[in-house]
Amino acid sequence: MPEIEYPLLTERLILRRFAAEDLGPYYAYQSLPETAVYLLNEPRTFAQCMARIARYIEAPFAQAGDWASFALQERTSGIFVGEIALKWGHGGKSDDASREEPARVGEIGWTLTPASRGKGYATEAATAVLELAFNTLGFVRLEARLDARNRASAAVCQRLGMVHEATLRNNTFLKGEWTSEAVYAVLREDYQGSAL
Ligand SMILES: CC(C)(COP(=O)(O)OP(=O)(O)OC[C@H]1O[C@@H](n2cnc3c(N)ncnc32)[C@H](O)[C@@H]1OP(=O)(O)O)[C@@H](O)C(=O)NCCC(=O)NCCS
Hints:
Blueprint: E1 8-9, E2 13-16, H1 23-30, H2 33-36, H3 46-58, E3 67-74, E4 80-88, E5 104-112, H4 121-135, E6 139-147, H5 151-159, E7 163-174, E8 177-187, H6 188-192
Parallel strand pairs: 5-6
Antiparallel strand pairs: 1-2, 2-3, 3-4, 4-5, 6-8, 7-8
Helix pairs in contact: 1-3
This protein binds coenzyme A.
């Protein structure tokens, strides 16, 4: 497995490994009900954020089931603006049987601090992660799974050229009501044939 060479750079953002000093800004937006409204989790407590940051700092990306979590930082100001994660999913090919190129499948997800939304940051960061996943890490399919009411997240998927493959109707009982899950995906051949 090629190593992820942190950080990734985009025009306006640095996508880097999480660090201990991210705890304050991470907790500040992860504890907000508005951040969690379409997420499976409730607003996170300080202790939960500490545990997540601790895991993110050292998490390996070595086998199916692992996550690579990138802290997003504005290049000009250095301000923490959110996170993006790449999950190595089960269902791809193993790469230890031969030297032929492995074929991995995975998932991508994003959250931004409220002040950082509406600037194109999620799309910009996700574009860099798609590039990494498809062109360096041997991924052949990436999907995003989101609450079907999450229009902002669906719009990110659409801007990335992801295809709306399904809406799984009322498949999750979330925060007191049944909700539907939308599945968007992009294949490596879609991505390499697109102008992204
Ligand atoms: C989902 C989420 C990350 C989307 O954030 P977002 O800021 O809307 O998405 P982007 O960063 O791609 O920004 C796109 C917006 O910035 C605008 N924009 C402004 N300047 C821009 C620029 N220079 N380049 C591109 N877009 C720009 C776009 O027009 C678009 O606005 P619109 O939606 O009003 O049309 C955000 O709503 C969020 O963090 N939600 C809470 C957590 C969550 O639900 N996560 C998803 C779980 S599946």
